[in-house]
Amino acid sequence: MAKALTAATVAKTRAAAARVEVPDGACPGLNLTVHPTGRKTWALRYRRPDGRSAKLVLGTAHAEPCDTPPVIGGHLNLASARALAARLRHEIAMGRDPGAETMATKQKQTPGGIEGADTYLNAARDYVAHAKLKSRRWKQTASILGFRPDGALVKGGLAERWREKRIVDIDEDEIFKVVDEARERAIPGLKARRAGQSETRARATFAALSVLFNWLKERRRIKTSPVGALKPPKAPMARDRVLTDDEIRRFWNATEAIGEPFGSVMKLLLLTGARLNEVAGMRRDEIDTHEGKEVWRIPAARTKNKRAHAVPLSPTAREIVEDAAERTKILGTPLIFTTTGATSISGWSKKKKRLDKLMGNPAPWRLHDLRRTAVTGMARAGADIAVIERAVNHISGSFGGIVGVYQKHKYEDEVRLALQAWERLLLSIVSGGERENVVAMERRA
Q1: Is pTM, for the whole model, over 0.70?
Q2: Shortest CA distance to 425 belongs to which of 375, 381, 382, 365?
Q3: Distance CA 311, CA 309 (A)
Q4: 3-state secondary structure 136-192
Q5: Is the dihedral of CA 45, 123, 204, 193 positive or negative?
Q6: pLDDT (0 to 100) of residue 404
Q7: With left for phi above 0 and alpha for psi between -120 and 50, is residue 401 left, alpha or beta?
C-alpha cells in the first residue's frame, strides 16, 4: 500500500530521465507527477461511469499555502490537491465525468475544435513541414522543436516531452522554463558548436518557439502566443576577434598540415573573406574565366543575403581553386571541394580542434573570425570601406537604405585590387616579411 505523501516528500522528489508518478496513500487516485524537466503536477486517476480508466491533471504542485479555493488548472499544495481530489471523487460517485467535461470545455476554447490537431506534436510537426520549404535553417529549428530531419522525435526533446500537450495549454511559464533550460544545457539533438553558448542557445530556443506560436496564431489555431509576453534573452555582445599577424602565420602553416580539401578551404576563407558555406559549396560552374581573369560568381541561392556575389580571385586564390578542381575532377562532380563527390565537405568542428592544436592552442577564435580578419587586412592594405563591403557582400553600411537602391556600380575592378593588395600583405605576414615591404593601394578620393 502506498504511503501518505507529506509536504517534505513532495519537495524532495526529484526528476528522472522518465516521468515519475508517486501515489498518495492518504487520497485514493491522487498522484504526484514529476516530469523530466523538474516540473511537478497533480493528477487524479479514476474510473469513468462506463468503467473505463481515466486521468485528469489537476494543476501544478505548489509548496506555498493556497488562500483561494482549489480549482482544476491552478497551483495546488498537498492539502488543496487532496481537497480538490476528494470533491471530484464525490462528483464521480454521483455519475459525473470531470475529465470529459474539462476536455469539452477546452475544445470549445480551441479555434476550429479539431480533436488531436492542436497537440504540440501535431502543431510543431506541421510547422516544421512548412519551414522545410521556406527556411534555410529549418533543420536547426526542427531540432529545437524536438524533431530530427527525417521526422523522428529527438530523445528528450520538446516534441517527445509535449507530444500530448494541447497548444492552448502551453503558457508563458512553460516557455520561460524551456528557454531557461536551454541556457543551462545543450538542446537535445542539437550539438553546441562551441563552448560558452548559453545565451545563444537560449535566444535560438526563444526564436524557434516564437516563430512556431506566431505561425499557429496566424492560422487561427491559437488566439494568443504564450511567447508574446516574454522578453527575449539578451543578445550576445558583437564579436571583434581578429587574428594577430603571429596567429595568421601559425594558421597558414597549420592549414598545410591539416590535409585536403580542408586546408584549401580554410586558406580561401582568409584570402576572400567569404563565408564557410559559400566556400565549402563552391561549384565548377561558378568559376568564370574571362580575358585571363577568374571570378567566382556565387548565385543568390547560396549567399546569406540572397544577393548574387562576385569574388575576383587573386593569384593565390586562383591557384588553390584550380588545384582543388583538378583533384576532384576524377569524381565527375560539380563540386570543387568534396570527398564523396556527392556532398560538400563537413566535420568542421573536429578539423577546427585539430587546427587549434597545430597552431599551438591560441586564444579562442572561430572560423568566421577569418572573415573579419580579411576585412581588417583589406583596410590595412589601403582599401576603401565601400570597396571592402562589396568584397564581402555586405548590403548595410555604405550600401544601406536608399544608397543600395540607386548605387548599382559593382566595384569589381576595385574589389580585385583590394583582394590582391590583401593577398600581398597576407603572404608577407606568412613569410615573416615586414609591413613596409608591401605596396599599399592608393586610396580613392
Answers
A1: no
A2: 381
A3: 7
A4: CCHHHHHHHHCECCCCCECCCCHHHHCCCCEHHHCCHHHHHHHHHHHHHCCCCCCCC
A5: positive
A6: 45
A7: left
